[in-house]
Write a structure and sequence with these properties.
Elements (H helix, E strand, L loop, with lengths): L2 H10 L12 E2 L10 E2 L2 H13 L1 E10 L9 E9 L2 E5 L8 H6 L4 E4 L2 H10 L6 E4 H8 L6 H9 L1 E2 L16 H12 L1 H15 L2 H13 L22 H21 L3 H4 L2 H10 L4 H5 L10 H16 L21 H4 L1 H21 L3 H4 L2 H9 L7 H10 L4 H17 L1
Parallel strand pairs: 1-8, 2-5, 3-6, 6-7
Antiparallel strand pairs: 3-4, 4-5
Helix pairs in contact: 1-16, 5-8, 6-8, 10-12, 10-14, 16-18, 16-20, 19-20
Protein name: Ribonuclease D
Pfam family, one: DNA_pol_A_exoN
GO biological process, one term: nucleobase-containing compound metabolic process
């Protein structure tokens, strides 16, 4: 029996890890109380020394001000380690936490949804060499809901306060209820890590998870996104190149203003307003003010700024206007496959079905078993030989982890040969 077959048989007949139990116990305050916020170098040095002298994994979390401030910087960092307790650090008052990062660099960091917090932690000098991601662990273990509060409740039997996740963490001073909420976010994170490690070991998936965590820790910062303005919500309604030029000009003007004022771009000008202006192509500020999102609350100076961006787009030469579809290096959208390459479309249908079926057997999301992007790339440009080894080599070259290759190369090879 192959390793893949053993794993499938060991997981497919197991009960779901989300068994119902007694009502969760509310966790209302940290066991040592809410610690003071560290906001000066002397206090930070003491925390660094204490965390360095602690033992075991370090629970790490960060609070941002998404929806309020420009960018994704951290406005509070929470840490907890055995022997050191919980620390709350203000990275506005202490913007360089590289000494702290070095002090715990050799420890395993425990984060929930690590890829969300690592960029802002990296910006203040904190980068792990090893980590355990409790959200990803929950996905691999087959939990249907993997938010921190739900996971703590399901796995450990405690309920966390949920009321302050979307507040403006750039506010100063931070209210005591917010600080209590922040401290509780790391209170049980190591306990959750330990329980999930045991669950993954029981399911035969622990090595897979460790491979995923190592890949996250080793990943370089992502490159800047090309044409970020194309992510404007509702841009799919804009059909013409001149109108897309308006979207781009307005997006860039908004971004510059948001950066200068340190505000979330959506607070400066809504995406819906950008799309409405692009569709209407108003000739002057009076016409612009009549559009949704540019009403009476927009002052004359702001209207002139937005109208100037629209006018710039109106005056652009045709060759400088954006294309209606972004240029990509990968395969075309799947909806175009049947017309452009019917054989590739058949391969994709077979491969998707095979990967989805295996993911269901393993009780994990299909995108964690193998991302749709990797499936599409292998199906669009399959290896010359469609055997498992050649398919595995192609997946490896595209960045798939070894456990993913072990679980999918054989079934993809079969789909490529039959599709």
């Amino acid at each position: 029996m192959s390793d893949a077959q053993q794993i499938t048989e060991s997981t497919s007949d197991q009960p779901s890890p989300e068994a119902t139990g007694p009502a969760p116990v509310p966790l209302l305050t940290p066991r040592e109380g809410v610690p003071p916020v560290i906001a000066d170098e002397a206090a930070l040095a003491a925390v660094v020394e204490g965390l360095a002298a602690g033992s075991g994994p370090v629970a790490v979390d960060a609070e941002r001000a998404s929806g309020y401030r420009y960018g994704q910087r951290a406005y509070l960092v929470q840490l907890r380690r055995a022997g050191a307790g919980t620390s709350l650090i203000d990275p506005v008052a202490c913007p360089d936490l590289s000494a702290l990062g070095e002090a715990i660099a050799d420890a395993e960091w425990v984060l929930h949804a690590a890829t969300q917090d690592l960029p802002c932690l990296r910006d203040i000098g904190m980068r792990p060499t090893r980590l355990f991601d409790t959200e990803l662990a929950g996905r691999l273990a087959g939990f249907a809901r993997v938010g921190l509060g739900v996971m703590v409740e399901t796995v450990l039997g405690y309920s966390l306060e949920k009321g302050h996740s979307a507040v403006d963490w750039s506010s100063r001073p931070l209210p005591e209820p917010w600080l209590r909420y922040a401290a509780l976010d790391v209170e049980l994170l190591v306990d959750l890590r330990d329980a999930l490690e045991e669950e993954l070991r029981h399911q035969g998936k622990l090595e897979w998870a460790l491979e995923e965590f190592a890949a996250i820790a080793a990943a370089p910062p992502p490159p800047p996104r090309k044409d970020p303005w194309r992510r404007t919500s509702g841009v799919h309604k804009v059909r013409k190149r001149r109108q897309l030029g308006v979207v781009r000009e307005l997006w860039e003007a908004r971004d510059e203003t948001a950066r200068r004022r340190d505000l979330s771009p959506g607070k400066v000008l809504a995406d819906a307003a950008i799309v409405a202006a692009a569709q209407a192509l108003p000739r002057d500020t009076r016409a612009l003010a009549a559009l949704p999102g540019f009403g009476h609350r927009t002052n004359r100076r702001q209207l002139a700024q937005w109208q100037a961006a629209i006018d710039r787009a109106r005056e652009l030469p045709e060759e400088e206007l954006p294309q209606t579809a972004p240029q990509t290096q990968g395969p075309p959208p799947p909806r175009a496959w049947a017309e452009r390459d019917p054989a590739a479309a058949a391969r994709l249908t077979a491969a998707r079905a095979a990967v989805t079926a295996r993911a269901e057997e393993l009780r994990m999301p299909q995108e964690n078993l193998l991302t749709p992007e990797l499936v599409r790339r292998v199906c669009w440009e399959p290896p010359a030989e469609a055997g498992p080894e050649a398919v595995g080599a192609a997946l490896r070259a595209l960045g798939a982890r070894e456990w993913q290759i072990g679980q999918t190369a054989e079934l993809l090879a079969k789909a490529l040969s039959e599709g």
